Amino acid sequence: xxxxxxxxxxxxxxxxxxxxxxxxxxxxxxxxxxxxxxxxxxxxxxxxxxxxxxxxxxxxxxxxxxxxxxxxxxxxxxxxxxxxxxxxxxxxxxxxxxxxxxxxxxxxxxxxxxxxxxxxxxxxxxxxxxxxxxxxxxxxxxxxxxxxxxxxxxxxxxxxxxxxxxxxxxxxxxxxxxxxxxxxxxxxxxxxxxxxxxxxxxxxxxxxxxxxxxxxxxxxxxxxxxxxxxxxxxxxxxxxxxxxxxxxxxxxxxxxxxxxxxxxxxxxxxxxxxxxxxxxxxxxxxxxxxxxxxxxxxxxxxxxxxxxxxxxxxxx
Length: 316
Ligand code: FDA
Fold this sequence. Notes:
Elements: H1 4-16, H2 19-27, H3 31-35, H4 44-56, E1 60-65, H5 73-92, E2 101-105, H6 118-136, E3 140-142, H7 150-163, E4 168-172, H8 178-185, E5 191-195, H9 210-226, E6 230-234, H10 238-250, E7 259-263, H11 268-276, E8 281-287, H12 291-301, H13 303-315
Parallel strand pairs: 1-2, 1-8, 2-3, 3-4, 4-5, 5-6, 6-7, 7-8
Helix pairs in contact: 1-12, 5-6, 6-7, 8-9, 9-10, 12-13
The chain binds dihydroflavine-adenine dinucleotide.
Dihydroflavine-adenine dinucleotide binds at residues 143-144, 170, 172, 193, 195-199, 234-238, 261-263, 266-267, 284, 301-302, 305.
EC number: 1.5.5.2
Binding site for FAD: 144, 172, 210, 235-236
Cofactor: FAD
């Protein structure tokens, strides 16, 4: 494929797997400032500071400890414990009550890919984190990964919800199956984050064109808004944000019965505008030692971000 946008995306994704480049970028003294736009720091203390700034500016927060795809049980345990320590610290800082700051989890980081017992291990680790969240008075949302994990993740979700009905799910509008998943999950008390989807998926399971993914997003959004659950609109797309606002009005939803969500550092003025309009606006804040892969995926999604990043490297 000689489409320049596709080539650039592939180059950046290649960079994300290049350990030498990773070393250079991580060690460059400048990187810290530049990385900070999209990543909420490396340590608990740093991410607490970032979350506190967001809360002070009337935004809600969900924090993701970066550590995808582990095939090492010790790493999965480390990720679990990091979440528990983080939730305790957030609770002590008074930031969790009522779900002001919650956490997002990737089951692959909790051991889902560890052979035949992987799903059970991830479920057990997620249980520990949900209990810590319950103690802190906040919620947990399960991120959604590639389509081979969708059924497994929804089954973990069902298990967790038996004890903690506030556990949220993510659905991706690029998958053909998602309209039906939205119908299944549009019931009372069900928190569903709708996003477009970020993995490279085959035509057999997913829409390929932006137009089709966007149309599917609107169909899914309509189902969620007209349902009894709590829709979370995770998109930076101005058209979809506007459509969500109209659909919420049509469904006569109050401002506290749904929320908008965006990633840290992306459209911050729009985040503030939505928050000032009285809407609930939540910012997804990734943090931890494994920030490099996350950052490179964001760059691949939108090369304009790469220009920003490289400018920072060159001029600081
Ligand atoms: P898209 O990338 O199509 O952009 C549409 C428009 O938005 C652009 O034309 C532009 O106007 C505006 N825009 C986008 N990026 C911008 C930028 N950097 N600066 C300015 N304007 C910009 N995915 C997944 O597979 N599983 C998951 O669990 C999650 N979780 C998740 C949580 C949250 C809170 C968010 C916001 C996103 C996710 N995602 C995700 C990622 C999601 O699937 C998707 O890849 C990105 O959000 C990008 O899609 P958009 O809807 O923003 O639109």
